[in-house]
């Protein structure tokens, strides 16, 4: 099993197993294994016995040449989820497809690298490319290269394996690239675990990985692991139970091609008023061509979200669960599918949506302030070049297919469908989520002044989890984003215990409306650009 990204939650029936178990060697009792010495073996002999135990070199090469694996992936950490995962491998190309209820996510790595999430297709970042390449090259089929020119064998460090204990292994180092440490079962010669170093694409740092291989079964002459657990820096990251491994059905090259952009030529340009309300800027929408709604315009939310009362009025049925990261905690969402959302003349049909109760801060609004019905997220906004002008009280939506690129913009990343901008404070370079749903800019704790000017009382609620937070406010000398600088800027700072949303995204903070409202903000999701135009007199 290769690495893959975390995605939504879905409950599945227990998998049916069609492959028979190969007859294992008679195993000695665990108490006897340390007392009965095994005859000394050369490193090469250990590798050759493992190759035979897995079905031979030809069988291992067939696994890399053409294979489809399907099963249930369970992820752990701040946002645990369960989903169906399908992995297709053809040579050095991989396609990961993750399905949770109505949501489907695809990641393609190799010479063609792209990802598709919530209807938008973007390129993999350099960190994502490195992570996918590294995790893909560390696999059991690497055994077949033993003895080839340039490949070196050495003793691997003694390691304590989860559920096994201390084990010795063999390190295989390719002519180019990083080594893989193989640890073998002394009774069957099969691979117990693989250990390697990989790039963490979220936090952009190297991590130590151990892949435990279990539940071996015979598939077309190859002994395959049907249960894999991946440990990252000694923490269980995910567990995968396969229920189908197919080495025979040919995989069409066309499935690895980057999907064409959704045909948005029929979309219309739209302009709509922005209203100030609890939770941010509100925009008028029509849901399913029948129900008027006020939605929070939130570029920091990757999926459009409806409050339960709104979903009930539209008679929308939940189709699964998704655990997502809010500001300070994890939130479980029910998933559904909207027939359409209309903003002015612009309409998007067949849209994924989450159903979640609004945070406490939105329930207690000042008298005369309009109530919201949900959040307009990036799976709608990313279909357009979006211009937000709070001072003018307008949002402009230009269909991506007909929009004009701007020359004086700055680049931005699209991470989990959400825009991430590059910012500078002095000599510090930061990655901040561009978040029109946040009224406050949140910066890393280490940049906080030693004597902050203001302390927010505990109980201030931000984020869909409605968590009570205490945020320190302080002044930074200058904050620069996309060529625009605000001096003596007052911002909040991440609490000492951190924020889960930043931990999951690997970003440094949030760029909120206290900064963005000074500018006319244009976000081009397709070209991954941002432009900030200064408003005269502000």
Which structural traits does this protein have?
single chain; 538 residues; mainly beta; 13-stranded antiparallel β-sheet; eight-stranded mixed β-sheet; 9 helices; disordered N terminus
What's the short version?
This protein has 538 residues and is mainly beta. A 13-stranded antiparallel β-sheet has the order 6-5-4-3-2-1-13-12-11-10-9-8-7. Strands 25, 26, 27, 28, 29, 32, 33 and 34 form an eight-stranded mixed β-sheet that branches.
Describe it for me?
- Helix content is about 10%, strand content about 45%.
- It has 9 helices and 36 strands.
- The protein is globular.
- Mean pLDDT is about 85; it is low at about 1-40 and about 455-460.
* Gyration radius, rounded: 26 Å
Main beta-sheet strand count, sense and barrel state: 13 strands, antiparallel
Portion in strands: over 45%
Helix content: 10-25%
Decide which structural class fits the backbone.
mainly beta
- Count the beta strands: 36
Helix count from the secondary structure assignment? 9
Uncertain ranges: 2-40, 457-461
Mean pLDDT: 83
Strands in their spatial order, largest beta sheet? 6-5-4-3-2-1-13-12-11-10-9-8-7
How far apart are the first and last residues' alpha carbons, in Å?
54 Å
Please state the overall shape, judged from the principal axes of the Cα atoms. globular
